[in-house]
Amino acid sequence: MDVSILEEQYDCIKQKQKLQTHIIVFKTGENDSVHDESMVNAVLINKKCCWTVVRMAQKEFLTAKLKNFLREDKIQLWKPPYTNENKKVGVELKELAQKFSTKLELSEVEVESLLEEIRCKAIERGTGNDAFKRTGIATLEVSLAGNKGKAKRKNSLETKLIITGKELRSQIAQTFGLQENRLKIIANKKILDLGKTLEEQGITHNVRVMVLELMHSQEETKRKVQEEEKQKEEDALKEKEIKDRLKRTKKGLEILAEREDYLDPDTTPYLDIANQTGKTIKIPPRAKKALVLAMGYHEKGRALMKKNEYEVALPFLLDADKHFCECGTDLLNTVDNYAVLQLDIVWCYFRLEQLECLDDAEKKLATAQNCFKRCYGENHERLFVIKGSLGSEKVLFLRLYLLQGIGHFHNGKEKDAAKYLKKAYDLFQELFIDPEKVNCLLLLGFSPQEARLGLRATSGDVDRAADLISNRRETKAEIRREERKKRRQRLEDINTLKNMGYSERAAQKALHQANGNLDNAFQILVSNPQLFLENDNNNPVTMNQFQVPKESIDQLVYMGFDRESAEEALKVFQGNIQLAAQTLARNGGVLPTELQLLSEATTPSEESTSSKDSPTESAGTSSSSTDEDMEVDAVNEILEDIPEHEEDYLDLTLEEEGSIIDKYLSYIQIPQP
User: Fold this and answer.
1) Which of 110, 163, 262, 450 is deepest in the core (most CB within 10 A)?
2) Taking a C-beta distance cutoff of 8 angstroms, is the pair 193, 165 a contact?
């Protein structure tokens, strides 16, 4: 590619930057002082370095694009007629260069050079594969990083995989004329362990290794080694922290997912599934548990993404993906959470520069797009009916188009990349928020998040945004008032049932089954006397330890019940004459079979009775208390990561997305309006 074209592109980008913000450019290496008040943004720019970066990006892009053309036409450059029997280039390669030069808008010479590079690498790889199969000697692609002005070099090295890292370092030093004790070798994203064999470190045939030649004194090298050891320790601690986080999150989410929604949320928090207005959605128990776990892991991952801890966030997001798949397609087709999760996973791939995950990323982006279509409608008509606007959700499509464009770029698909990056750019221009309008809403007492979401939902209209935010606040306040009213009534009903002799847990369960109707709850308790045995502290009622007063037995006998049945009923109901009489009357003067069996099953042995006051009780109590504290901490950690605003996932500043869009648009040379 003509360097003058690259220089012209660079100068054009530089002029656009000058129009956007004030930049002071320093020549590399100069350290003249500049007054603070004269700067807005100070940036060191090496013009030659910028050209080099653009050249590398352009070459990588063109090579990927050329490989796609070859795959589409099923052309294998390492075979005739492009390669003869002596593995020399065939004349047909020039014809191929002429064919593709028009498509790539490059000269035939440039295309022929790229084709020859691809052909030679393919032949070299094939020769190495044959040799490896015959002799077990692997070929490594050695990249010698440039130092002190030296250019970066790529070379091939043949070696056995049973040698140690130290032996490989020695071989590289001898082959390329380097000083062995100054070399650092990186393979599979890790520094090569000198004491282990290449096989033990997962190095195989055709693996790429990078060789760094250190230019430090002995003291500096020693310091570097110490820093590396410290880094290893920090990495180990970080890995342990990630595992501990995953373990705590899993524990907390499982506790919350198992908790019944009849409990008092003020004393025993649990997770509920609500719609965009905050009202509870009824979901079958099994699907609800899977959805709670999925959304819990997702929120944890999103909280870490906000802190730019993408490496830690990704495992949580992948766990969320696993649990979402257990919810069933009917549920996933009605909520956009699954689509948002796919975007978050791919965004982590991109931020972690995991380009080897491009195939998985493409599938996840397609899944997200289809899910949005099912949830929002073909033209977002369902979303408009539900929310009355489309502005806030457009940020999701901006990120979707941006990630699709990036994926196509790295796969060498220029037209598709241009199409989606342009769509992302147009949405970015539409969703850009004027800071002055945000300040106007802040002065009215709204939060920055409310201001951004409100302005996007109303296409930047400050007055409408203020009305929308106020209406949302009033709707939430009304829901909270209704919930407080229901809770007060529920507490009164629970106390009424407790005064009848039932435990709080039994009262809660009965009211939950009766949808809050006190009379129906009472009938449920009467019809299911075993609910009386529900104990508030989860310990079984020890019936044999209760001494039934003779007067109570006489009262039931006076009512016409058998003395033995009366005593057994009073023992089961802990002396509650009213419940004992009601149960006996409803069951023909005898206890129901399930209560009789329960009474027999809960009779403790002499051994367990005598051991209740043993010295181990205090230790067990202490252990139980510690476990409870750990559970409380795990649950609280989950609750802290759940955002208060239901549209928190739509609140993107788009600053990061904007810079990424500009970067990739400059690579594919699309003129910006």
Assistant:
1) 450
2) yes
Quote the CA–CA distance of 496 and 519 in Å, as a whole number: 11
**Inter-CA distances, 653 with 17, 464, 548, 559, Å:** 20, 20, 70, 75
Residue 652 class from Cβ within 10 Å (0-12 exposed, 13-18 middle, 19+ buried)? middle
Q: How far is CA 553 from CA 164, 396, 627, in A?
A: 87, 71, 43
* Secondary structure percentages of the chain, helix, strand, coil, to 5: 65, 5, 30
Q: How far apart are CA 673 and CA 671, in angstroms?
A: 6
Domain boundaries, the chain: 136-217, 485-597
For residue 158, the cross-strand partners are 139
DSSP designation for 197: B
List all residues 6 or more positions away from 371 whose beta carbon is below 8 Å from its beta carbon.
332, 333, 336, 338, 339, 342
* Helices vs strands, H then E, count in the chain: 26, 7
Residue 304's nearest CA partner among 313, 317, 294, 314 is 313
Closest alpha carbon to 633 in 242, 255, 241, 237? 255
**Longest C-alpha distance within the chain, in Å?**
116
**What are 224's two structure tokens?**
């570097």
Cα 226 to Cα 195, 229, 231: the distances in Å are 18, 5, 8
Tell me the whole-structure pTM to 2 decimals. 0.54
Nearest residue to 458 via CA among 506, 527, 408, 387: 387
Burial of 610: CB neighbours in 10 Å, binned 0-12, 13-18, 19+: exposed
Residue 177 CA from chain centroid, whole number: 46
pLDDT in tens, 171-205: 998 998 888 887 888 888 788 899 999 999 989 88
| Topology of domain 136-217, CATH | Ubiquitin-like (UB roll) (3.10.20)
**Residue 89, phi then psi, degrees to nearest 5:** -70, 140
Long-range CB contacts (within 8 A, 24+) of 510-518: 511/262, 512/260, 512/261, 512/262, 516/486, 516/489, 516/490, 518/493
Residues of the chain with pLDDT under 70: 1-56, 128, 145-154, 215-221, 259-284, 386-391, 529-546, 593-630, 669-673
- In terms of Cβ atoms closer than 10 Å to its own Cβ (0-12, 13-18, 19+), residue 435 is exposed
Chain centre to alpha carbon of residue 429: 27
How many residues make up the chain in this entry?
673
Measured CA to CA in angstroms, residue 284 lies from 194, 508, 655 at distances of 56, 20, 41
Q: Specify the 3-state DSSP secondary structure of 669.
A: coil
pLDDT tens digits for range 551-579: 888 888 888 888 888 887 777 777 777 77
